[in-house]
Write a structure and sequence with these properties.
heterodimer; A: alpha/beta; Rossmann fold; Oxidized Rhodanese, domain 1; 2 domains; B: about 60 residues; mainly beta; Ubiquitin-like (UB roll); globular; binds zinc ion
């Protein structure tokens, strides 16, 4: 189902613009009319990370008149494997500013709006209202549901994409024309069930595979060209090298865009997505130590069993000396319960403290009442105890 | 009954989408299921499967 263009055309293109965009202008389906619409378009990219990098760069090159960039993070060395809008000299710089500089270098005719802030319930409606279309390049479920809900409440289309290891998915969610994100995934997975890119890894170039689909769909929506990815989910498998689409219909029972919505405004997204499970938050009460405390315990020769609950690949990158590996999944499933200590106090740690909290809950349920976990995980150890170790 | 599950012919001992998902994962949350190329909304998971159905189980990921 073709849709009318989202944006009215600008009155004219300058001589410079005609030269710059000539390869678009000679495509009959874009032509002068489509390029003028791009010039008038206002697109917001949420997140200047893996997906945001190719999205912003191609939207800039394509001549989208106004590009908004919202990101509160700063560029880290571990971003550079995939976030190609940033470079070596940008490390430590706010991502929104670094991305804006790259956009200006690619195309000085684009007006860049920098939102160097966290997207929250307090500002999301205000920020989104200034744009015709939103591109979702965020890296956590809580923000993804917030972006969806705000877009639906404001009646705006948004181009969604997500990536993990070798797999990517993309779609256009637009409640006025089709399903929303909640129609496809009514709720996020239980906390700790699906790793983030920071925990599970992502093939760098996957960002380009999915980001380029998002840009293609944005351009089609803005100019009213072709068949938009509304009501279809693109599923990409880089290992098989297959792209396929499945149809997605509006769910009449969708909590947000269904016939009897129960969500009629923004909600508490951290609570909805559960940063840690209830069992884990109960288990850590009074059973949490800091990395510095762990160092004191180790220096004092305290008889503990230090257990790293991350994945083997993470353990190879960096670990706390004296630890042994027992992945969280095996502890929680019960498969590794026999490997938990019976005579010594167990001390769990992971990368940042979420997985170790889940492991702690399972261990306590199995009878290890004096077990503890390390707040902030190996990252806190590096930060507080041994900054010479690599972070990831 | 035999269906094609994520591309692999598989015998399942359930009649419904919900039963199939329940046999695969303990968590229904964060999962979408497509039957014959079309996602079945969560509210329709009681729907019956037929022999030979192409079933795809998709997992939500948060990375970006
Ligand atoms: Zn919906």
């Amino acid at each position: 189902m073709a849709l009318p263009p989202l944006v009215e055309p600008a009155t004219e293109l300058t001589v410079d613009e005609v030269r710059r965009y000539s390869r678009h202008l000679i495509i009959p389906d874009v032509a002068m009319d489509g390029q003028k619409r791009l010039k008038n378009a206002r697109v917001l990219c949420v997140g200047a990370g893996g997906l945001g990098s190719p999205a912003l760069m191609y939207l800039a090159a394509a001549g989208v008149g106004t590009l908004g960039i919202i990101d509160f993070d700063v560029v880290d060395e571990s971003n550079l494997q995939r976030q190609i809008i940033h470079g070596q000299s940008d490390i430590g710089r706010p991502k929104a500013e670094s991305a804006a500089a790259s956009v200006r270098e690619i195309n000085p005719l684009v007006e860049v709006v920098i939102h160097n802030e966290v997207l929250t319930n307090d500002n999301v409606m205000d920020v989104f209202s200034g744009y015709d279309l939103i591109i979702d390049g965020t890296d956590n479920f809580a923000t993804r549901y917030m972006v969806n809900d705000a877009a639906v409440l404001l009646g705006k289309p948004y181009v969604w994409g997500s990536i993990y290891r070798f797999d990517g998915q993309a779609s256009v969610f637009w409640a006025e024309q089709g399903p929303c994100y909640r129609c496809l995934y009514p709720e996020p997975p239980p906390p700790g069930m699906v790793p983030s890119c920071a925990e599970g890894g992502v093939l760098g170039v996957l960002c380009a595979s999915i980001g380029s689909i998002q840009v293609t769909e944005a351009i089609k929506l803005l100019t009213g060209t072709g068949e938009p990815l509304v009501g279809r989910l693109m599923v990409y498998d880089a290992l098989e090298m297959s792209y396929r689409t499945v149809k997605v219909k509006k769910d009449p029972d969708c909590a947000l865009c269904g016939e009897n919505p129960t969500v009629t405004g923004l909600i508490d997204y951290d609570d909805f997505c559960g940063a840690v499970s209830e069992e884990a938050s109960a288990a850590v009460q009074g059973s949490t130590i800091t990395a510095s405390e762990l160092k004191e315990w180790l220096d004092a020769g305290k008889d503990i069993d230090l257990i790293d609950v991350r994945e083997p690949a993470e353990y190879e990158i960096v670990r706390i000396p004296g630890s042994r590996l027992l992945p969280k999944g095996d502890i929680v499933s019960g498969a590794a319960l026999s490997e938990l200590p019976t005579d010594r106090q167990a001390v769990f740690y992971c990368k940042a403290g979420v997985r170790s909290a889940e492991a702690l809950a399972a261990a306590k349920a199995a009878g290890l009442s004096n077990a503890v976990h390390v707040q902030g995980g190996v990252l806190a150890w590096i930060n507080q105890v041994d900054p010479s170790l690599p972070t990831y | 009954m035999r269906v094609e599950l994520n591309g692999v012919p598989t015998d399942v001992d359930t009649e419904t989408v919900a039963g199939l998902v329940g046999g695969l994962t303990s968590a229904e949350r964060g999962v979408a299921v497509a039957v014959n190329g079309e996602v079945v909304p969560r509210s329709q998971w009681h729907r019956a499967l037929c022999t030979g159905d192409r079933v795809e189980v998709l997992t939500a990921s948060q990375g970006g």
